Structures are given as C-alpha cells and as structure tokens.
Amino acid sequence: MHNVRSKFVMSLLTIAIFYSSFLFLKAVYEIQFIEDKYFTSQAMSYRLKETTLNASRGAIFDTNLIPIVTNSRGFDVAIMPREIENIDEVSESLSVILGINSDELKNRINKKDSFFYVARNIDYRTGVEIISWKLSGLLLEETNNRILHQNSYEKLIGNVDPDGNGVEGLELYFNNYLSGQDGKIIYESAPNGRIIPQADIQTILPIHGEDLILTINSELQFKAGELCSEAIKKTNSMNCSIVFSDANTGDIIILVEKSNENISHISSDLINLRAYYEPGSSLKIFTIGALIEKDNSFLDVVYDVPDKIEMIKGSCNLNNNIKGCFRDFKNHENYNLKLENIIERSSNVGTILATRELSISEIESYLSKYGFMSKTGINLTGELSGRISSNKSCLTCLASLSIGYSIDVTQLQMLRAYSIIANGGKDVTLSLIKDELSNVQNNNFVINKDHATILKEFLVNVVQGDNGTAKNLKDLPYVTGGKTGTSRTYLEGSGYSENLFTTSFIGFTEFEDMTVVGSIILWGASINPSSEYITGGSTAAPLYKEMIEYFQKVGG
Predict the structure, then answer these.
(1) Which of 197, 206, 259, 520 has its CB surrounded by the most CB atoms within 10 Å?
(2) In angstroms, rounded to a whole number, what is the distance separating the alpha carbons of residues 285 and 274?
(3) How far apart (Å, rounded) are the C-alpha atoms in residues 25 and 47?
C-alpha cells in the first residue's frame, strides 16, 4: 500500500513538473516569438528619450527688407520644488537677477509640489549666468525671444505669448505662417541618462516659420510716429493715427498710432480699424457725389446759402433747447455757391440744401459702393464694418448724415473710399503684405472715370481755392487734394463733448511714380496752439503736409 501511494505521488510530481515546464516553455515561446514586439517596445519605452528641436519663428521685414521683428536666443526659468536643497539661496539669487520679490518666491516654492515657471523668455546672457550657479531645483529651457526693432510698429505687429504663439496684431493674423513646426531627436539612453552611441538615433528636423515682408516703409513709419507724438502734446489729443497707402494697389505704406499716456479714452489697439468715428465734413464729398451721380445737371445749380438753417422750426432760437439748427463754421452773409464751392468752403448749410434732393436710402446706396458698412479685408483681426443710424425718418436725419454725422466709419474705410476717387474710380483692396499679385491693379470700376474726375477736382480745389479749408497745403509741389473733417467727440455715457473734437484730414498727392492717399486723425483734441479754433484744417492738415514733404525727401 505504501509503495502504491509513493508511486502515485511521484506520478503527480512528474506530471506537475512536465506541465510547469510546458507552461514555462509556452510563455517563453510567446514572449520570444509571438509577443516579442510588444515586450521589446515596452522595454524600449524605458530607454527611448526624446528632445525637441524648436522651430524658429519667421522674421518680419519692411518693404525694403529692413528687419522689423527678429528672434534672439533666450530662456524660460522653471523651478522643481522637490529638488531644491536650499530654498533661501535659490529665492534670494533669483530675486536679484530677475527683479522679483524673494519672500513671495519662497512662499510659492513652499506651497507648490510640482514644476512651475518663475520667468519666461529672459535674455540669453541672464540665462547663462543662472545656469553657471548650478543650483539644484532650477531648470532652464532654451527659447526664441521676439525682438521689435522700432516702437512705431508696436501696435501693428502685436505680440506673442510666452509659448511663442501670436496673440495680437500681425503676429496673431499670420501665426500659422510664422510659427513653423518643431522637430525632435529620438535616441536610446542608459540608466544614467547618457546616449547609447551604438543605438539608432532618429532626427526629425524642424520646419522653420516663413518670413513676412510688409508693404510698409520704415523711414516713413518712424517719421509718422514722431509726428503723432508731437501732435498729441500740442493738441492734448487722446489718440493720433496716421495711415497712408498706394491709391492704385492698396498697399499700406504707413500705419501708425499713438496714445496720450495721461488721457486715453480710446484704449483699443489698432484704432484705425477697430474704432468708429463720425467723419464730419470729410464725408461731404460722397453725399455731394451721390447728388451728382443722380443728375449731373446739379453741377450748374447756384445755391443761396445762409450761415444757418432750421430743420425744426424755432431750433435756431437761442432761447430754445430744440436740437435742429445747423450752422456753418463762421457767421456770414448769404453766399451764392455751386457744389464745388460748397465743398471748398466745407459749408454745412450748403451741403444740407443741396442734398435735400436725395433720400437717406439713396445716400446709403451710394456710400455702399465705396465699401462703407463693410470691412476692407485688411490683414488684421477685429475690423469693424461701419454703421449708419437706423433712424431714417426724423426731421434732422438726412441733414445730419449729409454732413458726416449719424454715421460711424473706420479710418481704413475712408482711406479706401478716397483711394477710389484718387485712382479714377477703380476698386482697391488694402493690404499690408508685399506680394507680386498685390501690384496688379484692380480694373473693377466703382464709379465711372468722369464722375471720379469731377470729385477729384473738387478735392483739389479744397487745397487750391482761395476759400479752401486746406489751403495751407497749397505750396506743395505736387497735385494734392483732400478734405478736412471736424466733429465733436462722442463719449460713451455722456454724449457729444463740448470741448473735445475729432479732427482729421484725408487726401491724395500725385507723385511721378505713384499716387498716395493719406488719412490723419486726432481723436479728442482739446487744444490748438496756433489758432483759437480746433479744426481738421488747423491740426491734421499740417501733419499731412509734413508727411508729403518727407515722402519727397526719402523717395516714397
């Protein structure tokens, strides 16, 4: 019986050993032959390391290939709290070189367990200095910093976030174009972190961002920035913006804006496309143009123009508070004026008398041809479309619109509209980017050439006429035309200001090789050192003259 039991036990042990061996061999076979790729990849995952090769963001140049924005090497400074050996040494050292509060940094390190950035995009030399300290718990990552070479481009170019992504201006609009694509190096490393030289190293090269070439001339841009800064000081304006373009191609040559550091009601950047203003008298060329297009026989009509007109009975009585009295800038005896003279003198009353033949809808239809109430399509985000007051039946609505009130436009819309007159009636697309295709002139006519010529002559007469509101430009050696504009500044919450004026001049000048159109706006001007009056003719037009003289000097 004992022998039988022993044989049985031995048989079970033998079977168990054979079965275990079978399972072992089966597992080895599966690992070696069936699932070898899986286990190999698992093992490799602990040995494979990856290093990013940063793509360089594209540079930005002006029309003459002068650098506007370039890259420089820099560092992000990060802290790994768990690896810090001496918190006092780290916080005090960084506070000195980075200009941060030592105690605040110390508290932050004590409260956090995980990795965090303490500074982004510091300059390269500072980063190298921090690395040389060899302090535990500090990590420096190399980055590319954006360097802006001229402050007059600041608001146009915009900026990038700490990770190098565009968040405003051209940096945002062309972010994908400028960004590029990072590359990487994949390698095997030993437990001590060193590269295993015999192993394969895979390199994916970065695709660097494309460079951007603008249509803007840096010399003219810088000069315009200087003039804006000076004008703000002289007139105590809230803001100043200057834009010039080629009337035929739509290429923007200057786009500058400056803000009054003490009183800036308009805080938005890129106010030339993101801020509305009522153009005042500079719109009169279009409301009068609508009348001429309806019937050019109005060119021969002589209007008897007093210095004021009542749209609501009794509104010109000083004892009444009724708003319905429209006046010319200065008191005068009755004038006998044709349309050309009405534009020359910028007569509010004359414009109102002439445009009584029109309806608001007719004016609105005419304005839409020039691109009012629609975006210009400039290469920037946040552009406004413009708007006309929805009230078209009030007693003063037509009169108000005819002289440039109750309509909101952007500076770029006005620039485009005046370009159409200056180039003989052809449509134009505004652009900031230099492109061979952008030099192809648009042959789509917005208005016919004869009509454009009439309006153009009206604008030249504003400069050359004895009673022109821009006759201070008369001695320019080139054919120049334009229109001054003065409107009370509208303040949100309080209405039209009694002592702040948005003054402007927009016009064109014909050089031998190019016709330029320029718009200058002083937003909320309250002082005019050269005159008791704050008008577009006395504040904005002189800036236009200086810019044209500088065009002549540098050759455009």
Answers:
(1) 520
(2) 24
(3) 28
SS3 content of the chain, % helix, strand, coil (to 5): 40, 25, 35
Residue 383 token pair:
């552009």
Residue 268 forms part of a structural domain:
yes
pLDDT at residue 437, as a whole number: 47
CB contact set of 62 (below 8 Å; sequence gap of 6+): 68, 213, 214, 216, 217, 218, 221
Q: Mark whether 501 and 376 lie in a shared domain.
A: yes
Does residue 63 fall inside a structural domain?
yes
CATH label of the domain that carries residue 327: 3.40.710.10
- 207 & 222 share domain: no
Chosen domain end from 213, 237, 255: 213
End-to-end CA distance of the chain: 119
Identity (one letter) of the amino acid at 242?
I
Q: Mind giving me the DSSP string for 340-377? A: HHHHHHT-HHHHHHHGGGS-HHHHHHHHHHTTTTS---
pTM, full prediction: 0.84
pLDDT of residue 187: 73
Domain end among 213, 239, 273 = 213
Asked whether residue 290 falls in the same domain as residue 313, the answer is yes
> What tens digit of pLDDT does each residue of 345-376 get?
999 999 999 999 999 999 999 999 999 999 99
- In a domain, residue 41? The reply is no
CA distance 252 to 270: 14
- Asked if 432 and 170 count as a contact pair (C-beta separation under 8 A), the reply is yes
Domain containing 200 equals 51-213
| Domain tally, the chain | 2
115 and 73 in a common domain: yes
Q: Check whether residue 127 and residue 157 sit in a common domain.
A: yes
Name the DSSP class of 283. Answer: G
> Are residues 292 and 190 part of one domain?
no
Contacts 24+ apart (CB under 8 A), 261-269: 263/236, 263/238, 263/524, 264/238, 264/239, 265/238, 265/239, 265/489, 265/491, 265/523, 265/524, 266/238, 266/239, 266/523, 266/524, 269/155, 269/158, 269/168, 269/169
Element (DSSP H or E) covering residue 401: helix 397-402
74-93 pLDDT, tens digit per residue, is 888 999 888 888 888 888 99
Which DSSP helix (H) or strand (E) runs through 452? helix 449-464
- Between CA 296 and CA 403 the distance in angstroms is 20
Kindly report, residue by residue over 496-553, the tens digit of the pLDDT: 888 899 999 999 999 999 999 999 999 999 988 777 788 999 999 999 999 999 998 8
Q: What confidence tens digit (pLDDT) does each residue in 422-436 have?
A: 999 999 999 999 875
Residues 6+ apart with CB under 8 A from 426: 248, 420, 441, 442, 443, 444, 445, 446
